Amino acid sequence: MSGLTQIVILTLIAGLAMPIGASLAAVERISPRWLETEVRHGVVAFGGGALLSAVALVLVPKGVSNLSPLLVAACFAGGGGLFMMLDIRLAANKTPFSQLTAMLSDFVPEALALGATFTVSAEAGLLLAGIIALQNLPEGFNAFREITASTGFSRRQIVGAFTLMAGLGPIVGVTGYFVLSGYPQIVSGIMLFAAGGILYIVFEDIAPQSRLKNHWAPPLGAVAGFLLGVLGHMAVGA
Question: Residue 206: how many CB atoms within 10 A of its CB?
Fold first, then answer.
């Protein structure tokens, strides 16, 4: 199997974790009620932890390796600032899509990095695809719950839209493989920009949603999500 075919298949599988997570979230009720509440908040926290691990272990380390401190600061701060303005705009229009924004801003640069990584190491690209898929699963779950709570879209429409979004993976991965593999500085800038935006979203929207009064277990989801990233990072490093 050629490297290009592997990139298309792996990025598509990683992207399909988003509608799979959304489909799991479409299950109406977990009994008893307290368990449903704790699970929902725990998955939100897990997604936040996974996003933090993506920032701390993938996006930032790879991003800073090819840029000067000034460019690192500009890209990272620019991402945070732009996502803040986007959040303000969404809030003004009463359209909270923070989870969806975080999911795509994580998936797109990582798929781009996956394509570029395959030009150096197919094994590292394979492991990175697994990490992306595991991150997209809880993020798809959380984004589905957020959209159903704030819009009139049906479950079928949301899952269908997430399935179409999975098609971004092969497009971006192939772009990274053919176009950006020779421009590591551009890839690094994109990753740092996304990292700044994700960090803003985690602390502005996702972390506050994970808190549940008089319940202490859900925050462990953030620990588990970050641990997932650590183990994946160790596997890639190995």
Answer: 24
pLDDT in tens, 18-28: 899 888 877 75
Specify the 3-state DSSP secondary structure of 49: helix
Name the token pair of 152: 């009139």
Tokens (6 digits) for 72: 């690192």
Q: Is 238 helix (H, G, I), strand (E, B) or coil?
A: coil
Question: Two tokens at 22?
Answer: 């959304």
End-to-end CA gap in the chain: 23
What's the Cα-to-Cα distance from 209 to each of 62, 63, 148, rounded to whole Å? 29, 29, 15
pLDDT in tens, 40-56: 667 777 777 777 877 88
Distances (CA, A) of 88 to 82, 104, 153, 201: 10, 18, 22, 12
Which runs of consecutive H residues, i.e. helices, occur in 93-206?
98-118, 122-150, 155-166, 168-175, 184-201
CA distance 14 to 107: 9
What percent of the chain has a predicted confidence (pLDDT) above 90?
6
Q: Packing angle between helix 184-201 and helix 69-92, nearest 10 degrees?
A: 40
